[in-house]
Amino acid sequence: MTPAQFMRRHWQKEPLLARDALAGYADAVGRDDLFELAGRDDVESRIVMKRRGRWNVQHGPFDRRALARLPRREWTLLVQGVDLKVRQAARLLDEFSFIPYARLDDVMVSYAAPGGGVGPHFDSYDVFLLQGRGERRWQVSRQRDLALVPDIPVKILQRFEPQHEWRVQPGDLLYLPPQFAHDGVAIDECITYSVGFRAPTAQALAHHFLEFLQDDLDLDGRYVDPDLQPTRAPGRLPPQMIDHAVAVLERVRWSREDVARFVGAHLTEPKDNVVFDAPANPLSPKAFARAARKAGVRLAPATRMLISGIDVYINGERHRVPRSDAAVYARLADTRALKPPVAPGVSDALLLYEWYLAGYIEIRSRADA
Ligand code: SIN
Ligand code: CO
């Protein structure tokens, strides 16, 4: 199936099970890799299990001993943002580059003991579920009833009525549109990769936009009342004060350009737990330009970059680039790398050097070739 066919028939519409679609990634992350990531405090992880009929969730980091004490069956460990830590998981994302990066969330990887799973639920995002090691049984349902069990720490559907069932093996890929009910249960020990695509809610978009707007706000003036009369009812709110507030707030204006700036910055904002590693012994600007020209550069795994015309957004910042260089920055945003020869205008640009010092980009290594 071509990306165009997939988008037309399935994206945001219908589930799709593609057998043996991405077998090359089945072993990208093993159980030990995942256990190690779950021990780190810069990685978000959780364990979900059902014990004596009750769902329970614990948040990481988890040390080895805690993981070794878990029962033999019916629990699952979920690790978020694995693409930032494991190169092969980041490569997996390249398989989905027919979808704008602005929609991309991250790669979550789960390890489940036999019988483990997170229970019947739905996600608000589009998700591709790639089966790694082991087998899993997926049940899905187009049901409209999305009522959740109240007052428990996990999202579990009150009523789940499966309509389809598949048994998946390493390399099989299941796509689910948002709000599609599903339940995956590990048949034996298994690993599953979830490539998630986010979409902002109207509420979150407006909330963050208002925050953004407030940083640029610059209104002058203050309420004045030289004609104020003595009152016998000091507890009443003077209507003039409301009129004044209305007039002031009508002066808060924004343009499409402001909104575009907000969207670019917002969608490239790194997640809270992301830290960029600045180079330990940074090259001088000259040496950097030389190395960049010769070997090329690549985005650091955690860097989010989007481009819109001559506006380049990187990790929540906006930069305007010369029109003559925009195509090169666009290539960097699209392919997450610039292979040599890198145009001198760009390799010598202070911008690239600034990003290098911030740990947003790196000189390409031989392994990237
Ligand atoms: C899992 O990997 O167990 C959970 C994936 C999902 O159902 O969203
Ligand atoms: Co899910």
Tell me what you see in this structure.
This protein is α+β, with helices and mostly antiparallel strands and 369 residues long. The chain folds into three domains: 3-197, Jelly Rolls; 202-226 and 237-254, no CATH class; 285-368, Malonyl-Coenzyme A Acyl Carrier Protein, domain 2. It is built from eleven helices and 17 strands. The chain has helices at residues 3-9, 31-38, 64-68, 87-94, 202-216, 239-250, 256-267, 285-295, 326-335, 344-347, 350-358, and strands at 16-18, 45-51, 54-59, 75-79, 104-112, 126-131, 136-141, 164-168, 173-176, 181-186, 190-197, 297-299, 305-308, 311-314, 317-320, 337-338, 361-363. The strands form four sheets. An eight-stranded antiparallel beta sheet has the order 1-9-6-11-5-4-2-3, with helices on one face. A three-stranded antiparallel beta sheet has the order 8-7-10, with no helix packed on it. It has a three-stranded antiparallel beta sheet with strand order 16-12-17. Helix 5 crosses helix 7. The two termini are 29 Å apart. The model has no long low-confidence stretch (mean pLDDT 95). Bound molecules: succinic acid and cobalt (II) ion.
Observed structural traits:
3-stranded antiparallel β-sheet; Malonyl-Coenzyme A Acyl Carrier Protein, domain 2; 369 residues; alpha+beta; binds succinic acid; Jelly Rolls; globular; 8-stranded antiparallel β-sheet; 23% strand
